[in-house]
Amino acid sequence: MDARSSTFETLSKKIETRAARAGIIGLGYVGLPLAMAVARSGFAVTGFDIDPKKIVALDARRSYIDAVTNEALTAEIDAGRFVSTTDFAGLSDCDVIVICVPTPLTKHRDPDLSFVEATSRSIAAHLRAGQLIVLESTTYPGTTDDIVKVILEETGLKSGSDFFVGFSPEREDPGNQNYHTATIPKVVAGDGAQALSLMKSFYGAAVSSVVPVSSNATAEAVKLTENIFRSVNIALVNELKTVYAAMGIDVWEVIDAAKTKPFGYMPFYPGPGLGGHCIPIDPFYLTWKSREFELPTRFIELAGEINSAMPRYVVGKLAEALDIRAGKALSRSRVLVLGLAYKKNVADIRESPSLRLIEIIEERGGKADYHDPFVAEIPPTREYQALKGRKSIDLTPEAVAGYDVVLIATDHDIIDYAALSKNARLIVDTRNVFGRLGLSADHLIKA
H or E stretch including 82? Predict the structure, then answer.
């Protein structure tokens, strides 16, 4: 058996017998649930993060991610299967290392791979023979092979012989009660047949099913395709909303009727804009990469323009409602934005359109507060520093009655919308929550 085969066989056996230690870098919405799934499958897991506050919370058995309960976290710690640290020297003890770090956009909508590159260099500093390195962060096709692999090979070790490289796109959906990390099929790819074999073995132990594809670039394209599909279709219904509104047609009624067709139609719903860590960002990774091939991405860019325009459209409808229904200009009005999270029933505010809505309202002279049962205070964000530290107001009848209008931006289930209707002077509903609940009100406007 040559050295290359020996390295592969040794690592393969470690994974098969759960003797391998896994290192998960980035203990956020993707990394922490993955760490728990891997630990539950029998592997010892070390979680790495640069934020010491996360490590303090985890050591105290406190989860900051809704998808991971304190009980689940405690069980894996007590079983000796999970530890966390800010000390990346421990990477040398890990047989499988998974990168789950952010891949944001710059202000010019170019990919920001600084976290991926910095993490790859941290791994390279502790790289040894017999390790599998996996990227899960969403990015453009070619990143794993052209950036991560290249950085690692600067050590003198070679992918496919000394160590192995793979890509598996994350598929987390915060707040989804039907699917979690272990039950969502996992797309896997590797740099060569042996790397792919290791990927299938490792992820196959932790999740219900794996979907192997031919290359890392293909797997990277899978993730982008999933989110581009959603972005384009949401943009389509957002555009239809504006057109149908001008015609006096309720777009939500149209969609509800259209989805009764048992074939050839899939419902998507309009909203006040796109939020979350995927859909507003990921499509532009392909847009950027396509320039290398001198190919346009018209659908992607148009969808981005439409979705980005939605907050301003909503504020326009808000101002119109105030003028017609209350005889009051937005510049002299107090607005309560209901819901700060980007989607209902979660505390995640990444890329939330509610932040942009507040910003636009105040640019136009209005005064905006917010209520969100999951977000007590606005944390620091890269784009909305002026909003940092604002606190959620209590949703008392007296407080609601003190605002000129309530703007429903996120339709959390915990809200008593019937009570809200009784106390609000005017309601602008961007999520059709009143329609879904069968509630009606004369002072309700859909936007």
Answer: strand 82-85
Question: Half-sphere exposure (CA, 13 Å, Cβ side) for 78?
Answer: 7
Q: What is the mean pLDDT of each run of 10 residues along the chain (447 residues)?
A: 80 98 97 97 98 97 94 97 98 98 88 96 98 97 98 98 97 84 96 98 97 98 96 97 97 98 97 87 91 94 95 97 96 98 94 96 98 96 91 97 98 97 97 94 94
Q: Is 100 a catalytic residue?
A: no
Instruction: State the residue range of the domain holding 136.
Output: 3-214
Compute the half-sphere exposure of residue 396: CA atoms within 13 Å on the CB side of its CA.
5
* 132-135: strand order across its sheet: 82-85, 44-48, 21-25, 96-99, 132-135, 164-167, 186-190, 210-212
Identify the active-site residue in 127, 278, 303, 387.
278
Distance CA 256, CA 431 (A): 14
- Number of structural domains in the chain: 2
User: Are 154 and 287 found together in one domain?
Assistant: no
- Alpha-carbon distance 233 to 259, whole Å? 14
The Cα–Cα gap between 29 and 151 comes to 26
pTM attached to this predicted model: 0.92
Residue 221 lies in a domain: no
Looking at residue 85, what is its pLDDT? 98
Q: Are residues 207 and 92 in the same domain?
A: yes
For residue 336, report the phi and psi dihedrals to the nearest 5 degrees.
Answer: -105, 115
184 and 265 both lie in a single domain? no
Give the integer Cα–Cα distance in Å for 38 and 18.
10
